[in-house]
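Q: Structure for this?
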Amino acid sequence: MNEVASPVARIRLVILGMALVAGGMVVQLIRVQFGPYAPVFKDLGSSAVGRPERIVPDRGLIYDRNGKLLAANATMYFLEVELRQLTPESSQAIPQAISTLLSLDPKGIQAQLSRDYAAEGQLRIRLTRPDSDGKTWPISIDEPTAGVIKGFMGTDTGLDLSGLSLVPVPKRIYPTGSLLGHVLGIVNQEGKGFFGIEGFYDEWLSGKPITIERPLIPPEARLQPDPPAGVNLVLSIDVNVQQMVETALENEIQTSQAESGQVIVMDPRTGEIWAMASYPTLDPEEYEPWLQKEQAKEAVISPAASGQYEPGSTFKVVVMAGALDAGVVEPDDVYIDTGEIEVGGNVIRNWDGNAWGPQTMAGCMQHSLNVCLAYVGSQKLGAGLFYGYMNAFGIGQLTGTDLAGEVQGSLRTPRNADWTESDLGTNSFGQGVSVTPVQLLAAVGAVANRGVMVQPHLVREVVGPQGVYWPKTTVLGKPITPETAEVLTEMLAQSLEDETSYASVPGYRLAGKTGTAQIPGDYGYDPKLTIASFIGWGPIPDPQFVVYVRIDKPQNSPWGSVVAAPVFQEVVQRLVVMMNIPPDPVRMELAGGG
Amino acid sequence: MRNWHKQAFRQAPWRVEMRSAGGTMLGLTALLIIGGMYLTVSSKVAQAGRQLMTLEVRRQELLQGNADLHANLAELTTPERLLERARSLGFKPAGPNEIEYIEVEGYAPQPAFVAPRPLGSLEPGSTGLSPAFTETLGAWLSRLFGGDGDRQ
């Protein structure tokens, strides 16, 4: 006969069983909470609720002074394939569809899909296309093309595209194309700006990315904060003036078969740059070839602020300004030009090698006499005053303009160990000294602006989350007095009027100076090639613009008066209309209250 | 008093059962009500959450679409295109001699262009929230009984 367990024993047995289960649960809880796999369990738990996501704000927009959009944001898509989701049908259909849509070789895509990625531990691949050099680049498509592919993927078209996905990535676009490319700079695929405005204001434009916990289940959904946005910028550039200037420059480059060139238009009163054209033009969306150039990238991408060169005769404006301001010469002082002068053992000759005889200072400037200016620099000013004025005009110093990668040029002074007295002679007519276009523009701008030198700049308005900020005009210094500026302007205006100038514009009194600079090389100056330039301003007596023209290595003529001055003339003829500047008689009538 | 209760239960034992059943029913009903309320609130939260997620995606799409449209518009109105169009219509750029300047009394030049503020920096409107989240009990009561329907 079986002995039946007493009820108490059975109850104890059940309690023991339950206690064991409960104990096991407690042990497991402790293991999950504090054991070696605790972080893994923690991740598993949190991944079910949400996932961390980095939100990058849209890059700030860039406008011209009239509100024309110059840099904006769009979406481009990379084509990716999730290999585990590929089917035999989709392995055929994906290459076929993409090659048809993008005019690519289907075999190339087929080969990418049929590789044994599992052996490499890859589960997802980004489709690529080869370029003309055989390098492969990710296939990127624009919004309309992506729309077509999405249409195939989303509807019952009978096309099996399983495994294919479109991965959106932000892309910087420039609606005006290559217009202003050198000014705007570039933005790479990671959204970082380089060169020009994009480089200089990169931190401001890009905003601050934030990381949020993106909930996966609806009850946990919360209104997500927007990341602090990048600022929007309004440039002082006028795209219509820019277009006109670029056309004038391109025409001259083609006519003179020159290598490159630049034109910059600035308001000398405020330093606002209205146009800044460089040739060859740069399309910021197709910047890769520019990064492969042999020259310094900054110099070719931002030539206005980073491309230093020996200015030649345009520099005489700065030297004569110093001499007049110091009182060592007067406009009517006569210098007898014998055709050569020796300074520090170096013989300096005129551009034509001739002796020009008795010349006033105005004549020296009008005929651009190297000998006369070397005399003024070395014998009238002397090294102390000469380099003092160069320093006051900011030569060899940064202007602080808002373009990334500005360089300071180079100027040897008596403080430098390698300076010799002959430097003083050559510097006096613009040789042996290197400047950037914005540096020269700022220095000559001081003559146009009654002796006040302002900082050239491109941004006139910054619109951020806190509101609107208008940068103020920055005065870099007052290197000369207003009287000196007026006298020199008058001298140069007179010289333009006296000469049959290619730079004059009927109805407007203008002042300016040509430049024909030799190009230094490893073995001295190039005997043939020059940099032809012109810098002028007007209308006198209240200049509202300074126009700088530089043509590199023209083939039809080496002279600034032949190659660069006509560009100045063409630009000014349109500029006065676009800037609403009436001819001199009308302005005088209005000023007189008539 | 206590004896009276005992006698009553002895005479009618169903009273005890009724009391137990009543208590249980009461407990169950309370549980059901609480459960129902919890379910209702949870489903509303889930529904709102789902709607929020959908709207966020939609907002992102609209912002992107808007940005694309702006860019397209800018591309269509580049100076090069406009010049081409003007030329095709027979226009040409005016020279300095072809312009007549006249003095206009009281003319004010166009104000400088001001760029829009960046999108991410715009303050969300307070009207998006239900008054239940923002108004006090007193304000709610006064609105209920005072008939103040103009609350902003």
